[in-house]
Amino acid sequence: SESHSRPGSERTTMSNATDVALTLAAETQYGTPVTVTKSFEADELSIGIAIDGRRNTRNECTSSYNALLGQIRAAFISAGVSPELVRNSNFSVHPHFESLYEKDEDGTYYKASQRLEGYDFNADIDAKIEVASQLASPIWVALSSCGKEVSFCFTYGLANPDKAKRQLLVEAIELSREEASILAKASGATLG
User: Phi and psi of 64, rounded to 5°?
Assistant: First the structure.
């Protein structure tokens, strides 16, 4: 019996803070479904960081962004992590308008005007470190001191998920062989 993997049939879920559960759904050449689930110890910590703020001018936005990025890099340094791991994937500045509404004679509101109330800025930053480094807690504490315009999220995962998927595929093939052997024995047939 042979196992064939269906594209998109693997699933990743978190079972606890440092384990990643992968599920591989495959089927034998005869269409018999085989599902294998296994937990792997996470070996990578991805840190997603967002900066969101508002200032009066575009230049103030850029200056504030640079200051906050400096704080984030300093937070990584204070936690013992190279600031080179901090990568900015997006930075934008755009005007923030407030709409003013008025009531007409019939009591219906309409948009009378719009005025510029400053500029919003935001950035997406990420970093990846090895889980074994034991730096999650110091990084969390350091990033917490960056102020309300900085938010972050920690996600544990696998640095090489394809290696884990190959392991699951081997286990699915072995399970398929075992099931095929049981079916062959029960029906009096032999595997070829």
Answer: -65, -40
